[in-house]
Amino acid sequence: MSDCDSVLIVEDAASLRLMYETVLRRTGHTTLSAGTGAAAMDAFRAKRPGVVVLDLMLPDRDGIELIAELLGADHAPNVVVITANGSITRAVAAMRAGAHDFLVKPFDTQRLIDAVANARRARRTAPVPARSLPDNTAPVGAFIGSDASMRAVYGRIRSVARSMATVFITGESGTGKELCAQAVHDESDRADKPFIALNCGAIPADLLESEVFGHLRGSFTGAVSDKPGAAAEADGGTLFLDEICEMDLALQTKLLRFLQTSTIHPVGAARPRNVNVRIICATNRDPLAAVRRGDLREDLYYRLHVVPVHLPPLRARGEDVVEIARHELARLSREEGRSFTRLAPDVTDMFRAHPWPGNVRQLVNVLRNVVVLNDGAQVTPDMLPAEFRDSPKGEAVAQASPAASTSDEAAIGNLVGRSLAEIEKLVIEGTIAHYGGSIPKAARVLDVSPSTLYRKREAWMRERTAAE
């Protein structure tokens, strides 16, 4: 017998089990319940519910093992796991084992209702299982390329898209992190709902809360009208938070609360409101290093870093660089009314050898420069920008000379005895001075967001003012 619209609640605490059943029945769900792993499997085999709400702490068996058994069965359910506040890593492990979503105690009843509703909706709109697809690793979304490293990315995008799991995208600047987020959204059951992208590093810290959660008119100087905020605009869809490691720590606390409760509290509002949003985030840094530095809250990291997707740099993608170049050349030629149809063999050799520090974004910019300033059927080496032709090709790395080594030792010697904070300040201020006071230029050299440098300088100024 199968009742795919019913919900199986697996919770060993009788009082909580009764509360979950009551809440879900009031919202129209048919429920059944179990207090142990063995009873849960008996109930599942008898009724075949479409959704299972599972507390990971069971008296007779491990919750992760139970997930594997449930998902290995015919007519596998979508599983929503429940875990204690101090066991986020267990929830992350459950998501990687195939769970659809997770709730962290304590959570409000609306969060439970939304999680079950999302799990049921995803099941009804689920695609043909991946093993029945002709090719689960074909390019997805706007991606181009068939290198093995990217085929793995395409497969992971398709695998995670239909769940509610938070996706954490990493990769160098220009590798396509927003394309990846958009592809996850487009492959999900939320594809017809909004996809809202927000760059946390491009918005001043004092405006970021308003940008994410919104504000009411008059709530602060300059708030001349109500603003819904990115989280409200993404209601029902996906919110993409780029450069998450650049988010102000105070706002990280509010973001964590939002993830736990699915509620937002616009600046100046008297009451919070519920929203149904899937979170995808990205960074071009090492997120664990950001945690160690104190730039990213550890609990937020574990809440966000559920399904990691790493985008390889262009230099590691083999022949993809030529495939992308040919595709972009055709597109740009159409846009600019040019007649380019091919790359000269010397050009493809140069593209293969180049290290591409700016990745796909840099490649597109090089080709745009060629198409705008030239015309013809074939791109030749002399058409490439001079700075590209003169840049290192990555084929040979010059060995450091003894003089350079001595200079490096002297520079290091001048830093010995200073704290890391002092060294960081010296390097940042020295780099800004070297580039004539240009913070954007210094940020590019230091491989950080300009907002990071502005924030650090503001903090140093406050410290100096307090000391005076």
Task: Give the SSE map.
Blueprint: E1 6-10, H1 14-26, E2 30-34, H2 37-47, E3 51-55, H3 63-71, E4 78-83, H4 88-96, E5 101-104, H5 109-124, H6 148-161, E6 167-170, H7 177-187, E7 195-199, H8 205-213, H9 230-233, E8 238-242, H10 249-261, E9 263-264, E10 273-274, E11 278-283, H11 287-293, H12 298-304, E12 307-310, H13 320-336, E13 342-343, H14 345-353, H15 359-373, E14 378-379, H16 386-390, H17 402-415, H18 420-434, H19 439-446, H20 450-467
Parallel strand pairs: 1-2, 1-3, 3-4, 4-5, 6-11, 6-12, 7-8, 8-11, 13-14
Antiparallel strand pairs: 9-10
Question: Gist?
Answer:
This protein is an alpha/beta fold. The chain is 48% helix and 12% strand.
For the secondary structure, the number of strands is: 14
CATH topology (fold) name of the largest domain:
Rossmann fold
- Give the helix tally: 20
CATH architecture of the largest domain: 3-Layer(aba) Sandwich
Overall average residue pLDDT: 82
Task: Give the radius of gyration.
Answer: 26 Å
Distance between the termini: 77 Å
Fourth-level CATH superfamily of the largest domain: P-loop containing nucleotide triphosphate hydrolases
Low-confidence stretches: 126-134, 394-408
Estimate the helix proportion, in percent. 40-55%
Largest sheet: 5 strands, parallel
What is the total domain count?
4
How much strand content do the residues show?
A: 5-15%
Q: Name the strands of the widest sheet in spatial order.
A: 2-1-3-4-5
Helix/strand class: alpha/beta
**Tell me, what's the shape?**
globular
Identify the CATH class of the largest domain: Alpha Beta
